[in-house]
Amino acid sequence: MKFNVRYATSPEDSKSYDTEKLRESYLIESVFEADEICLTYSHFDRIIAGGIMPIHEVLSLGAPKEVASDFFLQRRELGLINVGGAGVIHVDGVKYDMAHKDGLYLGRGVKEVTFETVDKANPAKFYMNSSPAHKTYPNKHIPFSITNPRAIGSVETMNKRVIYQYLHPAVLETCQLQMGLTELAEGSGWNTMPCHTHERRMEVYFYFNLKEEHRVFHMMGQPQETRHIVMANEQAVISPSWSIHAGIGTSNYTFIWGMCGENQAYDDMDFVETKNLK
Questions:
Q1: Alpha-carbon torsion 141, 49, 256, 44, what sign?
Q2: Whose CA, among 71, 92, 160, 209, lies 20 to 30 Å from 115?
Q3: Can you give the residue ranges of every domain in the chain?
Q4: Are 130 and 47 within 8 A, CB to CB?
Q5: pTM for this one?
Q6: What is the rounded distance in angstroms from the CA atom of residue 127 to the CA atom of residue 98?
Q7: Residue pair 85/122 in contact by the 8 Å Cβ criterion
Q8: Is 107 helix (H, G, I), strand (E, B) or coil?
Q9: Could you write out the DSSP letters of every residue in 202-268?
Q10: Cβ atoms within 10 A of the Cβ of 110, count?
């Protein structure tokens, strides 16, 4: 397992960051590596985000010293979405077959989790988020067919998209973690605009389904002090609660959003009119 730690930053500090410092603080540049579990621990609400890519080996989710527990989910919950080929996850002896775009929620107290790929030529890629948990909720397999879709946006504003809610009160109960997948229609590039912040929870975005030659410009910072990070396919970015989080791509793409904090109300957002951005 590769485990990286990022400390929290303040909006005042971020005003002075150059490109290198912005990327060092917020960008998760390498999410998937062959036969590896690559995780990043952020001190923003103590979320853990990363990727698991088994090919030739069965990978086991261990407990790095940074989580200070006997096993990874001793005091945590976890959500993941498979963005690769078919895979299998064993959870305390229970087998879950994971098709492309299937999700899985694991509650606090799960002890043993292993990951494997069905077809080595088309490996599974499990993108995961984990947050602290105060109680145990049941494990749940979330096939793509039972996610909660919300079609929003328009061609005229270049943000026609469908939001598929996975870890969400409409689908299942969790302590604080929420996750979903958003697919942009062909010809659309904005994942949200007008943008917003939500002071009661932070967020991580994972961008994928982007061709090698294309990029996403991820917008962040306070509304009157914006910054951007240029991102390639299969990279993730940490978004503090004080920061806007929006993006525009040079083509359409898909992204997974994960949130944790003290509020699960999906529409609890502080919107910012585009004309007020600086």
A1: positive
A2: 209
A3: 2-276
A4: yes
A5: 0.96
A6: 12
A7: yes
A8: coil
A9: EEEEEEES--TT--EEEEEEETTEEEEEEE-TTEEEEE-TTS--EEEESS--EEEEEEEES---TT-
A10: 20
In this predicted model, what pLDDT tens digit does every residue of 156-168 receive, in sequence order? 999 999 999 999 9
12-64 pLDDT, tens digit per residue, is: 999 999 999 999 999 999 999 999 999 999 999 999 999 999 999 999 999 99
Q: What is the pLDDT at residue 266?
A: 65
Element (H, E) at 196: strand 196-197
CB 25 within 8 A of CB 50: no
Tokens 């952020």 identify what position? 42
Asked which of 43-47, 90-94, 176-180, 197-201 is least confident by mean pLDDT, the reply is 197-201
How far is 268 from 200, CA to CA, in rounded Å?
A: 8
Q: What whole-number distance in Å separates Cα of residue 64 and Cα of residue 79?
A: 18
Domain 2-276 top-level CATH class:
mainly beta
Count of other CB atoms within 10 angstroms of residue 70: 9
**Spatial separation of the C-alpha atoms in residues 161 and 192, rounded to whole Å:** 9
Per DSSP, the three-state class of 67 is helix
Distance CA 165, CA 147 (A): 5
What is the DSSP pairing of strand 2-6 with strand 36-42?
Answer: parallel
**Angstrom distance (rounded) from CA 82 to CA 66:** 25
Task: Tell me how far apart the alpha carbons of residues 18 and 241 are, in angstroms, rounded to a whole number.
Answer: 21
pLDDT in tens, 244-269: 999 999 999 999 999 998 877 767 77
Tokens of 110: 């799960």
Residue 24 tokens, joined: 């060092």
Residues 6 or more apart whose CB falls under 8 angstroms from that of 224 comprise 276, 277, 278
pLDDT for the residue numbered 195: 86
